[in-house]
Description:
The chain is α/β, with parallel strands linked by helices and 149 residues long. The chain contains five helices and six strands. The radius of gyration is 15 Å and the shape is globular.
Amino acid sequence: MRIWVDADACPALIKEILYRAAERNQIHLALVANKALRTPRSPWIHLVQVARGFDVADGHIVNAVEPGDLVVTADIPLAAAVVEKGASALNPRGEFYSRENVRELLDIRNFMQSLRSTGVDTGGPAILSQSDRHAFAKQLDQFLARQRR
Protein backbone atom coordinates (compact mmCIF):
# COMPACT_ATOMS: atom_id res chain seq x y z
CA MET A 1 0.00 0.00 0.00
CA ARG A 2 1.26 3.43 -0.95
CA ILE A 3 -0.02 6.96 -0.43
CA TRP A 4 0.14 9.23 -3.47
CA VAL A 5 -0.18 12.99 -3.11
CA ASP A 6 -1.19 15.42 -5.84
CA ALA A 7 1.45 17.64 -4.29
CA ASP A 8 1.40 20.79 -6.43
CA ALA A 9 -1.91 21.87 -4.90
CA CYS A 10 -1.78 20.08 -1.54
CA PRO A 11 -1.70 22.48 1.43
CA ALA A 12 1.53 22.43 3.45
CA LEU A 13 -0.32 21.60 6.68
CA ILE A 14 -1.83 18.51 5.06
CA LYS A 15 1.61 17.44 3.81
CA GLU A 16 2.91 17.71 7.39
CA ILE A 17 0.14 15.38 8.59
CA LEU A 18 1.03 12.96 5.80
CA TYR A 19 4.76 13.06 6.62
CA ARG A 20 4.07 12.15 10.24
CA ALA A 21 1.66 9.38 9.26
CA ALA A 22 4.13 7.87 6.77
CA GLU A 23 6.88 7.78 9.39
CA ARG A 24 4.65 6.49 12.18
CA ASN A 25 3.07 3.76 10.03
CA GLN A 26 6.12 3.05 7.85
CA ILE A 27 4.12 3.53 4.66
CA HIS A 28 5.55 4.79 1.41
CA LEU A 29 4.43 8.33 0.63
CA ALA A 30 4.99 9.63 -2.90
CA LEU A 31 4.52 13.34 -3.54
CA VAL A 32 3.98 13.90 -7.25
CA ALA A 33 4.67 17.43 -8.46
CA ASN A 34 5.96 19.29 -11.50
CA LYS A 35 8.37 21.35 -9.42
CA ALA A 36 10.94 20.58 -6.75
CA LEU A 37 9.52 20.38 -3.24
CA ARG A 38 11.28 20.23 0.08
CA THR A 39 10.53 16.92 1.78
CA PRO A 40 11.83 15.40 5.00
CA ARG A 41 14.69 12.92 4.77
CA SER A 42 13.05 9.56 5.20
CA PRO A 43 13.09 6.12 3.62
CA TRP A 44 9.27 6.38 3.54
CA ILE A 45 8.87 9.77 1.83
CA HIS A 46 9.94 10.64 -1.68
CA LEU A 47 9.25 13.20 -4.37
CA VAL A 48 8.34 12.20 -7.90
CA GLN A 49 9.04 15.24 -10.05
CA VAL A 50 7.25 15.08 -13.40
CA ALA A 51 7.49 17.35 -16.42
CA ARG A 52 5.53 20.58 -16.43
CA GLY A 53 2.26 20.48 -18.27
CA PHE A 54 -1.46 20.21 -17.84
CA ASP A 55 -2.40 17.10 -15.81
CA VAL A 56 1.07 15.50 -16.11
CA ALA A 57 1.19 14.80 -12.36
CA ASP A 58 -2.37 13.47 -12.47
CA GLY A 59 -1.48 11.16 -15.34
CA HIS A 60 1.52 9.83 -13.45
CA ILE A 61 -0.61 9.08 -10.40
CA VAL A 62 -3.33 7.36 -12.43
CA ASN A 63 -0.76 5.19 -14.22
CA ALA A 64 1.05 4.23 -11.01
CA VAL A 65 -1.79 3.83 -8.52
CA GLU A 66 -2.88 0.32 -7.59
CA PRO A 67 -5.96 -1.04 -5.82
CA GLY A 68 -5.58 -0.48 -2.09
CA ASP A 69 -3.48 2.68 -2.50
CA LEU A 70 -4.64 6.05 -1.24
CA VAL A 71 -4.48 9.26 -3.29
CA VAL A 72 -4.73 12.65 -1.58
CA THR A 73 -6.17 15.21 -3.97
CA ALA A 74 -8.77 17.95 -4.30
CA ASP A 75 -8.87 17.31 -8.06
CA ILE A 76 -12.21 15.61 -8.72
CA PRO A 77 -11.35 14.24 -12.21
CA LEU A 78 -8.20 12.68 -10.74
CA ALA A 79 -10.22 11.25 -7.85
CA ALA A 80 -12.72 9.76 -10.31
CA ALA A 81 -9.93 8.04 -12.27
CA VAL A 82 -8.34 6.72 -9.07
CA VAL A 83 -11.62 5.35 -7.72
CA GLU A 84 -12.25 3.71 -11.10
CA LYS A 85 -8.93 1.85 -10.71
CA GLY A 86 -9.95 0.52 -7.29
CA ALA A 87 -7.86 2.85 -5.16
CA SER A 88 -9.13 5.26 -2.53
CA ALA A 89 -9.11 9.05 -2.79
CA LEU A 90 -9.28 11.55 0.07
CA ASN A 91 -9.43 15.31 -0.25
CA PRO A 92 -7.55 17.69 2.07
CA ARG A 93 -10.79 18.52 3.90
CA GLY A 94 -11.18 14.92 5.03
CA GLU A 95 -13.84 13.78 2.56
CA PHE A 96 -13.45 10.44 0.81
CA TYR A 97 -14.41 10.12 -2.81
CA SER A 98 -16.32 6.95 -3.60
CA ARG A 99 -18.01 5.28 -6.54
CA GLU A 100 -21.26 6.59 -5.07
CA ASN A 101 -20.31 10.27 -4.82
CA VAL A 102 -17.55 10.96 -7.33
CA ARG A 103 -19.81 11.12 -10.40
CA GLU A 104 -22.12 13.63 -8.72
CA LEU A 105 -19.14 15.72 -7.57
CA LEU A 106 -17.72 15.62 -11.09
CA ASP A 107 -21.06 16.79 -12.53
CA ILE A 108 -21.17 19.69 -10.04
CA ARG A 109 -17.57 20.60 -10.84
CA ASN A 110 -18.30 20.60 -14.59
CA PHE A 111 -21.42 22.72 -14.08
CA MET A 112 -19.49 25.29 -12.01
CA GLN A 113 -16.74 25.34 -14.63
CA SER A 114 -19.32 26.05 -17.34
CA LEU A 115 -20.71 28.93 -15.25
CA ARG A 116 -17.21 30.38 -14.82
CA SER A 117 -16.59 30.11 -18.57
CA THR A 118 -19.63 32.34 -19.17
CA GLY A 119 -18.28 34.97 -16.78
CA VAL A 120 -20.21 34.08 -13.64
CA ASP A 121 -18.13 34.62 -10.48
CA THR A 122 -18.61 31.41 -8.51
CA GLY A 123 -16.02 32.27 -5.86
CA GLY A 124 -13.26 29.93 -4.83
CA PRO A 125 -12.90 27.26 -2.21
CA ALA A 126 -12.97 28.26 1.43
CA ILE A 127 -9.68 28.51 3.31
CA LEU A 128 -8.64 25.22 4.89
CA SER A 129 -9.83 25.43 8.49
CA GLN A 130 -8.64 23.81 11.69
CA SER A 131 -11.69 21.53 11.60
CA ASP A 132 -10.81 20.54 8.00
CA ARG A 133 -7.30 19.56 9.13
CA HIS A 134 -8.71 17.55 12.03
CA ALA A 135 -11.20 15.82 9.72
CA PHE A 136 -8.40 14.96 7.30
CA ALA A 137 -6.16 13.56 10.05
CA LYS A 138 -9.03 11.51 11.49
CA GLN A 139 -10.01 10.03 8.12
CA LEU A 140 -6.37 9.27 7.29
CA ASP A 141 -5.83 7.52 10.63
CA GLN A 142 -9.02 5.49 10.22
CA PHE A 143 -8.03 4.48 6.67
CA LEU A 144 -4.57 3.39 7.80
CA ALA A 145 -6.03 1.43 10.73
CA ARG A 146 -8.34 -0.45 8.31
CA GLN A 147 -5.34 -1.27 6.10
CA ARG A 148 -3.44 -2.80 9.03
CA ARG A 149 -6.23 -5.31 9.70
